């Protein structure tokens, strides 16, 4: 529990989120939830039979990052690509209903909109079905994306990149994003994908999870060690990423073990998990990168931003489905 003065500082930072202008760039997805009940096992195979009681749709991937940002500021824009299909139209409509600026969403007739369908019964995920076709942007779509970036960057306070490895982000485009953020003095927060092997040199903050950190560092995965600050393998992976990417901050999310903050000029900092109950971890990383970026452009120190991102993740995993966190939920109470 933070002290009263620390809690007041965090409340002031959160109040400042509403004035910030954020551009979210990345792979847009549609999350479909099929809700149902299980009463028997199939006679055809040893699997449960789900009797569907309802369906719901939410923005997913980078679109969910934008949805999380929109909880805190109305000045939120999203940039990415959807297919020329019904799922793409549904996703754009959902984004607009959330109050997001979708002028940067490109429609690509050669791509299909990524859809992740989760079948939920008894508050548990039974299975997930993915429909996707990874298709890198063609030259014309890349040109349009870069033009939109260069028009938009001067009017925002921060850029958030959410790379899900679906083809929208390429190294030339990543380089232009980094150059634009640096040239205009904007906060750049990146949620990377280890298998795209993109470099985000000089970003303000980069937020991989543990597995992504080892993969991006080119190191074999290692079992977690507690206390976290004694986890030599994790610290080695983090130091390698600091050398490779040269971010101001590297925040490694560790699930039930919280988060580890690494900086070039400060000792490692560990913040333990704030989660009380875990119903669903889907989207927790989206919430973390959204709050991390908002906090940094509101004037938070890296430690304060990490604490707020960790607090937000701890709240959202206690909700079922692709959820968000509100300013009221994030504000710390007086001790």
Kindly describe this structure.
The chain is of the alpha/beta class. The chain has a single domain, classed as UDP-N-acetylmuramoyl-L-alanine:D-glutamate ligase, CATH 3.40.1190. The protein contains ten helices and 13 strands. Strands 5-4-1-8-9-10-11-12-13 form a nine-stranded mixed beta sheet, with helices on both faces. Strand 6 and strand 7 form a beta hairpin. Helix 2 packs across helix 8 and helix 4 runs parallel beside helix 5. The longest helix is centred in the C-terminal third of the chain and has 15 residues. The radius of gyration is 20 Å and the shape is globular.
Quick structural overview:
Helix content is 35%, strand content 29%. The chain has ten helices and 13 strands.
Structural class: alpha/beta
Kindly identify the CATH topology: UDP-N-acetylmuramoyl-L-alanine:D-glutamate ligase
General form: globular
Distance between the termini: 6 Å
For the record, what CATH class applies? Answer: Alpha Beta
CATH homologous superfamily grouping: Ribokinase
Mean pLDDT: 92
Which residues sit in consecutive blocks of at least 5 with pLDDT less than 50?
none
């Amino acid at each position: 529990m933070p002290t009263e003065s620390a809690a007041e500082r965090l409340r002031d930072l959160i109040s400042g989120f509403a004035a910030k202008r954020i551009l979210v760039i990345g792979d847009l997805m549609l999350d479909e939830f099929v809700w149902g009940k299980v009463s028997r096992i199939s006679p055809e195979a040893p699997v449960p039979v789900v009797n569907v009681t309802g369906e719901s749709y939410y923005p997913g991937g980078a679109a969910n990052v934008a949805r999380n940002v929109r909880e805190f500021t109305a000045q939120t824009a999203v940039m990415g690509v959807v297919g020329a299909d019904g799922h793409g139209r549904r996703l754009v409509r959902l984004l607009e209903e959330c109050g997001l600026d979708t002028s940067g969403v490109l429609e690509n007739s050669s791509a299909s909109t990524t859809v992740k369908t989760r079948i939920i019964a008894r508050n548990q995920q039974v299975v997930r079905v993915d429909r996707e076709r990874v298709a890198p942007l063609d030259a014309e779509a890349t040109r349009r994306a870069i033009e939109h970036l260069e028009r938009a960057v001067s009017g925002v306070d921060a850029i958030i990149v959410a790379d899900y490895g679906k083809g929208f982000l390429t190294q030339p485009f990543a380089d232009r994003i980094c150059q634009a953020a640096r040239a205009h003095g904007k906060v750049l927060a990146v949620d990377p994908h280890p298998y795209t092997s993109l470099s985000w040199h000089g970003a303000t903050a980069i937020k991989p999870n543990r597995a992504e950190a080892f993969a991006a560092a080119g190191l074999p995965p290692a079992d977690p060690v507690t206390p976290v600050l004694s986890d030599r393998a994790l610290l080695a992976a983090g130091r390698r990423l600091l050398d490779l990417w040269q971010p101001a901050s590297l925040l490694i999310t560790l699930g039930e073990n919280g988060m580890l903050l690494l900086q070039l000029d400060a000792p490692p900092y560990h913040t333990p998990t704030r989660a009380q109950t875990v119903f669903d971890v889907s989207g927790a990383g989206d919430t973390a990168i959204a709050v991390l970026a908002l906090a940094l452009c509101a004037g938070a120190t890296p430690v304060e931003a990490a604490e707020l991102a960790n607090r937000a993740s701890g709240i959202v995993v206690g909700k079922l489905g692709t959820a968000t966190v509100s300013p009221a939920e994030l504000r710390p109470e007086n001790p």
